[in-house]
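pasting for ref
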Amino acid sequence: MSKLNNDLLYFAPCGMHDGIGGGGRLKNMIDIFKDLELNVQLISYSPGDYFKIKNEQINPFLKSTTINVPMGLPKLLKAFIIPLIILHGLNYISRSRIVFALTPSVASGFPATVLAKIFNKPLFVDHMDVRDPETPEFLYNNTLKNSTLTLVISHFLENEVKNKFQGNTFYLPIFIDTDVFQKNGNDRRKVREKLGIKESEIVIGYAGSFWYVEGVPVLLESFRNLVKKHKNIRLILLGSGRAPNLDTISISEDETELNEKVIFIPPQPYEQVPKFLSACDIVCSPKVDCEVNRAANPIKTYEYMSMGLITVISSVGEVANVIKNGVNGFLVNPGDEKDLENTLDFIIQNMGSMGEIGRQARKDVIKNYSQRAALKKMENIFQQDFINSIS
């Protein structure tokens, strides 16, 4: 396609190096914009140890301004960061053809809406989640109401936008770099050696937040029972539970065997996650049933599948349409410890015949959820005629 000779002003509530979570979608979108030869000015808000504004020329297509704000800052003071974000956006809005927001949040959607409205620019919103508690409902609604085009990652969110805001939507599910997320035998050997895992041991893994909706305690309880049946299993929990509103993940000191079987790994930079996943044989996303998860289309599902690992996912939200039970992964009832335990028990006992399921998972992700697949869809969006037709 011909190059769009204007910048894209991109507001995001997380930085390029924000580890697992929203940072994964951000990085993948940036890669797509690069392939489309769009010049991007990224302005992001990111928690840090102290206040700092960092400007970077990351590559010829991408400039980044990251506003780091201390995590312990009172909410009233955090509110003054929004005008600062808008002020930085003013430096680039005049030459930007499109304003893009990663989520309709207060730190992303609101600044994007203000500048798009004032300067009469098309506003694109990447809608990935239900409203977060820190974003007032009227700001959330205002962003989606004024969105020229809303990209949605799930049909739940698509219905919300169409029914509540009568807005234009484009279904763009999660996509990932399948070249990055693939098993690496060398990484597997090194990580297992470092963590003291024997090659004969079967490793169940989880990578992500310990927020209660993720259901990590459900996985831990299921594993507690599995250890009684299988002596050759280990559990890797990659993430953190030290932030507010996250699950309390604990093992009592008298559970000696369980403590020896469970390995806690702190959050890692996004590009390092595949190395730790390579050490696993089975991976889980044990989400509970709630509105957040019904709207979700978690990136970890596609990362797991792309690795060619045996993937076990709670049947809630968009992933229920992605996983074909027993074909490219396994679905379990959300929040059901016994169902998860029984499914993992079956897989462990039949590991020798599970290879094709992992291979099929990777094939499906490459075909439908890779960056290459997403690029084909995004090319149509950024054609000049299409932008003019919806502006």
